[in-house]
Protein 1
Amino acid sequence: MRCTFLSLAAFALMAWSAGAQTGGSDYKPPKTPWGDPDLQGIWPGNMGVPMQRSKNLGDRTTLTDEEYAQRVAQAQKAAAADNEERAPKDARVGIGPPSYWTERGTPTRQASLIIDPPDGRIPPLTPDAQKRRKEARGGLGDPAEWAGRADTYEDLNLYYRCITRGVTGSIIPVVYNNGNQILQAPGYVVIRNEMIHEARVIPLDSRPHLSTSIHEYMGDSRGHWDGNTLVIETTNYTDKTSIGSNGVGYNGEGGKHTQALRTVERLTRVDDRTIDYEVTVDDPQTWTKPWTMRIELKRDSKYQFLEYACHEGNYAMKDILSGARADEAAKAPR
Amino acid sequence: MWEIGAIGAIPPGQGVVDGSQIPYTPAALAKKQANFTKRRTDDPEAKCYMPGVPRANYMPYPFQIVQSPQGILFVYEFASANRLVNMGKPVEAGSDTWMGTNNGHWEGETLVVDVTGLNGLAWLDRAGDFMSDQAHVVERYTRIDPYHLNYEATIEDSKTFTRPWKITMPLYRRVEKNAQLLDFKCVEFAEELLYGQYKKK
């Protein structure tokens, strides 16, 4: 199992290197004063690359000129809508934030975040995982994309509850606050994620993982250098988070994993302002084989990394629950 | 009384305030007393809110200091709060935040952190002591031996106090071989307190 997984990851990396990588292979990243490759800085994610690839693209990892032009045109259309000063008179009243709050990202030619399997699609669920999905919450399913029931706060997912977005959910680019900041010190790398706010302190001294009886939302991370690549292996996960945007899954599927999840992240600075971030997701109790996402992170020294006080300002939770109670009261027989 | 047994007790201590008394204005003292009465539900710690500065440093949860070329990062276990101390050219506070705008510099062996832009919502302890959004905190961290820091914080806030005042305490290093910060996502502990009344009956 482990052997297959490693060779798949290696294949994915090779496949990408042969593709549209910027910077060239002779790029040498700067070093920290103590000699580690220097990955420090603010590297916000870039919204706009779908997690899974459209089936019609097959094994193609990059868009054609025509497909790319379409993606750019879509982004320009969205940006134009964002710049309208006020909503048209006949617009329906919405409860979401105004559209100018959201980031559209800069279109790239990357066909999908998933680069392995080669079709860019999440591998099939194991029979056990299919059963778990079906039986979750007495048949209602996992509270990944919120489906409307709000009897209690536990009907809402970990993102709505401002608990955490997990390791991968904190890096997959979303509509706003995509700040990622990397800091280094001798023996440590820290990855800060802006939204909800995390600061994952990753030791590089090859100490053993936590006891297998301890499980954490953000897992237990250990890092080492493989040449100029930072490799982070994370285990000891809970079975409460999911793989996908904001840690709550992807379209049509909850993305929920088990405690057997192991992730391997590989961060390589491929030019002065680009980190090639890849994460391999391996949970044999959920997916029939490991799969890998690639996210291009661009350094932005002007990015303002803000304090994201999610739970402290979570009016939505009170409003969703009290709204559901008001709705019940209005519908109750008199 | 609260029905949580002695788990809810707070161990005794002699206090860390220089001169023992916090110099509240009369109005602020009345607010402190009201906070104390409502502390079970109103203490931001009970609600799992970010603890602010200086409280984050003396809660019963560990924190880790990461000294990096990009600044000095304080990572707190409680609520995953963290704050990056800018060691470069001082920056002005933007919007008010829980953990403040932190500018640091070295005075000999002492790290001095100047904290502004605090939102005034954090408390200083479980007894309802507080400060306002006008507070200016100056912290001093001095390593006095391999396992201890001397910690001082001077608090200036003319809206709340009649004069600046200071707390002083040692900070003890975790010396366990396997010491590391663990997840402490306290939101789950606070949801019943905050949202229980809105659940379906």
Note: Residues 9 and 80 of chain B are 24 Å apart (CA to CA).
Protein 2
Amino acid sequence: MNELPLDRLNDKINSEDFSRLLNLHIKYKWLENEHKAVFDLWCLTDNDIQKKLIEKLMSNFLHVDSARLNKYGIIIAAKIENEWNLNAQNTFLVATCDEREPDGSQMLIQSLKNKFTREWKGINFFNSIVVGANEINCDSNIILVDDFIGTGITITKKTKYLNETLSKRGITNYTIRIISIAAMEFSIENLDLLNVEYFSCEWLKKGINEHIPLIERNIYIEAMEMLENKLLKKHGSKRMPKFGFKRSESLFDIEAFNVPNNVFPIFWWPYLKDKKERRTILRRV
Amino acid sequence: MKIFSEDIILLKEVQKDIPLEIYALHLKYKLSPAQLARSIEKFSSLDIITIVSNEYIRITDFGKKWLIANKSKIYLFDRDSEWKKIPIEDAIESIGANKLYKVDLKKIDTRILKKIEGEK
């Protein structure tokens, strides 16, 4: 529970909106941290369908707080040690990060380190795929670690890069596996093409197209389009990814991590159509 | 347990022992849904209040006794006076216990003194 004071509202709101916002806050306590952004998002809506859409999306949203992240870490460590029977002698967990900037895979690998048995040491963990690909030797089990798999395109690229780099170095007899906290169900199509074992703690459906029954789906798609129309389409070189990157429609975030761009932009895209900044429930740098 | 201003308001209002409309607290005090959700969650999890039909709350028998037992703590002492806290950007180094302190007269707003003297 947030231990900081919360502000009162500047204006009174009607009974219906108050009641629905109150219910959102009672059901999803994590929204409390960004209660002003929740209110702003509510104010962005024009009609009941758009409000219902927000309620439906929130009900399927997977918010991973630090306690849950810890739990997933334990599950992942058990999977590697007990089910895959891999040991510390020749197993390496490699974050998929390959850029100068830190990312979620590095945060995850840091939180995983202390979930393993004592045989596992710092050398079993790489916080960059570039370092891992250039240092891991023959007869190794390599586990690529990412916090979230959206379309599966990025993890495919990372796996190819790892294979190519190891091959160039003459490394043979290794296996690659993939692990994530959450992945979109539709990414399985891409993951299967990699011909590697993979594991995700959670499998997520698309927020509208796979959660809302066909009979009312179009109404909600239109409602989301109307909401997104109120946001700035392009800021600098960045385009707002409609319905999330490649229309992933993801409903996922990890507390204190950068939110994936696969998530619906109404939750994190920080500009309104008139170029004014808006408060958002989630943040992405 | 940390007590916020909205908690005090809620406890004072709910003591009247009639189902209290949650929305009325918003209308009267402009308490936000987030404030009230946190407050309701806090006291209902302790069985001090109970939620009636999603829109009303009522104090429980245990809540009445709890309030009486803790009234001085709740209403007088165990509360952070957020308004007393100085924002970091406005804070200056504190003066040591035995250090001399001289008021910088130039920094004093003398308009109030002039008014007291009847000057216009």
Note: Residues 15-60+206-267 of chain A form one domain.
